[in-house]
Amino acid sequence: MSFNLAALAWRNIRSRRARSWLTIVGILIGTMAIVTLISIGTGVENAVLQQFKDIGLDVVLLTPQEGVVDHSSATIAGTSMSGRTQGKTLGEGSLSAKPLGEGGAPQMRQAGSAGLDPAQLRRDVPEVTQIGQIATQVLPVTAGDLAGFVRVMAPSQSLTTQFAGLLGGFEVAQGSGLDPANANGVLLGAHTAQEMGVSVGDTITIGGNTFTVVGILSPSRQTHDGLGSDLLNGQSAEVFHALANTDDAVFVLYQQAMALWPDRFMSSMIAIRIRSGISVTDTIAKINTAVAHQGLSMTPISTQALADNVQKTLGMVKIVLASIAAISLLVGAVGMMNTMYTAVLERTREIGILKSIGAKDRQILGIFLIDSGLMGLAGGIIGLVTGVAASFVGTALLGKWMAVTTFSPSFPLWLLVGVVWFSFVLGALAGIWPAWHAARLDPVKALASE
């Protein structure tokens, strides 16, 4: 009997194709909007969270509360080189260069964490499993006929091996990495090497000391992803962005930099990895106490806390977007209710005939509920397919606009199943009142109607 009701409902839909398709389109648009917005929002969330996972959700970064690099300096945003080769200024039109002898080095505020004893910190806080250190400074550089300023990053050996995610992956594309046995070795970021016009084996002068280029890094992940810096703001975001963007910097080992420029390096930061399963909040409190006992004042930045903040923010954005899309779906449901009520008025005589030959109220109710439910289901399925296609198109356009290459939409199972099920249920609910009206019709009056 149920199959017969479904067949009758399907025949009724086919008999008024234009009206049925217009009704289905109303559901389709709402479903497509929900799938597109949620899948893109989930894709953004996954991409950003993956960046934090690459760094490590168990990582805490200690930064000096005073004496950070003056971010108003043009060199901190990227390598600033100047010089003339074949009549052209390197970086001309794209970099704010300050030639040597024309303004001098960017102004810095001296400070740092050189007084922190990592070994003592591990003894005071046993939850700490790994420690790395990095310092930054802007120093004069000379490469052939070129002269200017460059951002020098001095990571410890442990930081390059155990906290590579902080440095945008720190993958060597040419040559080799930093070696403590090679006191004059320097590693160049991808963009810095290109701007300097040097390759592995060439020599450059940094801060009055001659170095040999031992390797060139691959472009940092920050260059490709770019989402974290767009969604985060404040000092924490600046610190992570500055560390992850290795393209516009040169690298020497921390111990080597401290020996060569003991009075010039500043903004020394400590990277700490916490044992898994330990409360990050409680451990940060212990770290603050241990650092204070050493007479220093540093600000802890937790990747877990930043990831949680981003997840909450993106979660709220997804809810707002889904709510906006749901409005169009509700409008489609109202349109379906109007269509079904019109169908009841047009089929009053047919309803009277069905009742006169023994059809019960629940069967009449079932015909119209199945009718509206099938249109909702059709709109949901087609809307799902078009929504998936629109998600990839929207992601391609958004990724191009945001200069992001590793961003893709995400389609969790609950979204795929939920939108189809919800469309069917919403369609059936939209048909309840018209179906109830049809089931309540008096067969004698229905037969007498024209």
Written overview of the protein:
It is a single chain. The chain has 450 residues and is of the alpha+beta class. It folds into 2 domains: 2-50 and 311-448, no CATH class; 66-296, no CATH class. Helix content is 54%, strand content 17%. The protein has 17 helices and 12 strands. It has helices spanning 2-15, 17-55, 74-77, 118-124, 157-162, 190-196, 221-225, 227-231, 235-244, 254-260, 280-293, 303-346, 348-356, 361-402, 413-430, 432-439, 443-448, and strands at 59-64, 80-85, 88-89, 128-143, 146-155, 172-175, 185-188, 203-206, 209-217, 250-251, 266-274, 298-302. The chain has a 6-stranded mixed β-barrel with strand order 4-5-10-7-9-8. α14 packs across α15. The longest helix is centred in the last third of the chain and has 44 residues, at 303-346. It is elongated, with a radius of gyration of 33 Å. Residues 67-113 have low confidence and may be disordered.
Which terms would index this structure?
single chain, 450 residues, alpha+beta, 2 domains, six-stranded mixed beta barrel, 17 helices, 17% strand, elongated
Number of helices: 17
Spatial sequence of strands, sheet with the most strands: 4-5-10-7-9-8
Q: What helical percentage do the residues reach?
A: 40-55%
**Main β-sheet: number of strands, strand sense, barrel status?**
6 strands, mixed, barrel
* N-end to C-end Cα span: 29 Å
Please tally the β strands and state the result. Answer: 12
Radius of gyration, in Å, reads 33 Å
Strand content: 15-25%
Summed up, the domain count is 2
User: Uncertain regions: pLDDT < 50 for 5+ in a row?
Assistant: 67-113
Output the structural class. alpha+beta
Element-by-element helix/strand order: HHEHEEHEEHEEHEEHHHEHEHEHHHHHH
- 3D shape: elongated
Calculate the mean pLDDT score and round it: 76
